[in-house]
Amino acid sequence: MARRSFRFLLTLFTIALAIALALGQVSTIKAQTLTSNLVQQGVKEYQQGQYQAAIASWQQALADYQATEDNPNTVIVLENLARVYQHIGQAEQAIAFWSQVTDRYQQLGDKQKLGRSLTEQAQAYSSLGQHRQAIAILCGESNHKNQCSDNSAIAIAQATADPLGEVAAQGSLGETYRLRGDYAKAVGYLEASLKIAQAIKNRQLQMSALTSLGNNYSSLAQVSYRRAESAVSRGDIYGSRGVEYAIDSPVMKLRTEGKQQDKSALNYFQASLKLATQQGNSSEQVRSLISSLPIYYRLQDFSAAAKSKQQAQALIATLTPESTTVYATIDLAKLLQPEQVSFTSCYNADSLPAAQALLQQGVDLAKQLQDNRATSFALGELGHLYECSQDYEQALELTQKARLSAEKDKDSLYLWEWQTGRILLAQGKSEAAITAYETAIAP
């Protein structure tokens, strides 16, 4: 069974790695009433990383505003709740609130805010892997000749002359196509997003578009390398003059193409890193550095990889407490070594201490955030680390905790059932292992 990519998860849970919405900020309410004070209290709690407290404050404010049928202030609180749930990785709750937000903006006739809220709703769907639904919201079902339907986020942004909304919607659509594996289609939307972001001089959105383009070209490079491996297995290794592995042989052309795509990806990541450094944006710096690591390994530039790892490890401790930080710690732990960490490969002895520290940091933060999904992945990966060091009792205990956390967000449950089976098999408990494997593959 393939191990789920945590780099993929990092991208999903930040759609800011995809398209960090500058418009996605929690809002205050001007009128100084008891209810508005609750809203402002929630904003302060949110900014301090006290997300559950912020939710409680906003839920109370929401009930008050709904009781008085105060639509404008109700929609502000609904937006804040949608964003905080997305922020802590609870996308299903976020979607439910975004549905209420879009309904309210339609009632209020505010087309610009409707378009922007549709984009954020689409991001929440994308974070759950529901890419078709996200595409429908961003551009429409058919997307014929790149013409989006009138009620889509992109069309609304264009109709209301909202460049900020359009750059976010275009970028989100490009990222969604990238996550679906439609890299050629993704490039067009991501480049359009970058162009608009540069025109309006929005650095945050430029960084997001640059990082997403880098991820897209990195994925294209991996496709080229896989095609090169297939060419070798087919015997397509001869050039026009019959020389093995000649520069004009199919396999070498594909390898060259992959290297060029990797270099393009690095250029995008470095451009994003430069902007992030200028802006003092640690989160975007970490994303660019982590995303660059697999490319440095593929190009065998181990000096650059070591420098990027060192920078990322130093910066990651400074990040704000949120779900994206949890996935960043997992991702970095898995990329501390050139050899890919998977179900069939392990952390090497040199990387174990640093990886363990990062994963424990991720576990602690996920628990603090009360994010079951992030807790599940962090605990499960830490369990795999102990499995690699053959401490099967500790590995099994952590994996079982990951399973319990996954019961509430079931998309990772099969991973930990499978890992449980593998650990039990290593302990010689064949019957229990078979039961775990059967549970993992059960519909």
List keywords for this structure.
443 residues, Serine Threonine Protein Phosphatase 5, Tetratricopeptide repeat, 74% helix, globular, disordered N terminus
What is the structure about, briefly put?
By secondary structure, the chain is an all-alpha fold. Helix content is 74%, strand content 0%.
Structure in words:
With 443 residues, this protein is mainly α. The chain has a domain of 108 residues: Serine Threonine Protein Phosphatase 5, Tetratricopeptide repeat (Alpha Horseshoe). 74% of the residues lie in helices and 0% in strands. It is built from 21 helices and no strands.
> What form results from the Cα inertia axes?
globular
- At the fourth level of CATH, the homologous superfamily of the domain at 336-443 is Tetratricopeptide repeat domain
Strand content: under 5%
The helicity comes to: over 70%
Largest sheet: none
Q: Structural class, please? A: mainly alpha
CATH class membership of the domain at 336-443: Mainly Alpha
Blueprint (SSEs and pairs):
Layout: H1 6-13, H2 16-19, H3 34-47, H4 51-67, H5 71-87, H6 91-108, H7 111-127, H8 131-138, H9 153-159, H10 163-180, H11 183-199, H12 203-234, H13 250-279, H14 282-298, H15 302-316, H16 323-334, H17 352-369, H18 372-388, H19 392-406, H20 413-426, H21 430-441
